[in-house]
Design a protein that fits this description.
alpha/beta
Length: 247
């Protein structure tokens, strides 16, 4: 059983023993959205980057599903740890429970890396993927920013980043074929802007359908809260983008 820590609206899951899918559905949705919350693959920020995003999507006519996935390299309760690709496995299983119709993926922080990875899987057909302030490629040991940054523990977490550098042209298995929306913070020290810049260059060179927004004074983890800056418009930009891509 998964036990949240803290109270609404700042609950989080410090450990995940079983995968879950939290459904927030509306009648006659414009589309459906699988939400991947962040937490650095060490925990899940279930409210800030999950439930709050679902409520925002519901208010704008979308059904939303918050993925509660297991965390690579953490205790599996059986004397071992979950493998590097456990979050991907849980994400693919979660997609099986979402009905037909237009589908988007949305991920914040490390959840954006997972959403991007899901978008690259054979057989996963989505209208687009929204990625915000996510470590999508510059945590890979060959593309690190800043250079020389140490590997991330546990080893399984680093292995997952190394297996899936999202948006690097030299790693085509990690370049989504669907439209992509990016929202990043220029001065984000937790997730350097190189993650977005790498993806922008790949999109330019490959003709990928990419909308990229880099906000000058946004903090890391702005989500739908810290809106004191030009990044306050990013939710509206994302909604307009989704309306154009929902096919």
């Amino acid at each position: 059983m998964n036990i949240t820590e803290g109270g609404w609206p700042d609950r989080k899951l410090p450990a995940v023993t079983r995968a879950e899918l939290w459904a927030f559905e509306v009648a006659q949705p414009k589309a459906q959205v699988l939400i991947c919350a962040g937490g650095g693959y060490l925990q899940l920020m279930t409210d800030r980057e999950g439930v709050e995003a679902a409520a925002w999507l519901n208010a704008n006519g979308y059904s939303a599903y918050v993925l509660i996935h297991r965390l690579p390299g953490t205790d599996n309760g059986q004397g071992g740890v979950w493998p590097a690709d456990i979050a991907l496995t849980d994400g693919l299983t979660g997609l099986e429970y979402i009905g037909d119709g237009p589908l988007f993926l949305m991920g914040l922080s490390s959840g954006g890396h997972l959403a991007g990875t899901l978008a690259c899987q054979p057989g996963v057909q989505v209208s687009g993927v929204i990625i915000a302030y996510a470590p999508i490629n510059a945590n890979h040991r060959d593309y690190k920013a800043p250079k020389g940054k140490p590997d991330y523990p546990p080893a399984e977490k680093q292995a997952f980043y190394d297996a899936w550098p999202i948006g690097i042209r030299a790693e085509p298995h990690g370049v989504p074929a669907c439209p992509v929306f990016l929202a990043y913070a220029l001065h984000d020290k937790a997730v350097p802007v190189e993650h977005a810049l790498n993806f922008i260059l790949t999109a330019r060179d490959t003709g990928l359908d990419l909308d990229a927004h880099i906000f000058g004074q946004a903090p890391h983890g702005f989500a739908l809260r810290d809106m004191a800056g030009s990044h306050a418009i990013w939710p509206d930009l994302a909604l307009k983008w989704m309306a154009a891509k929902a096919i």
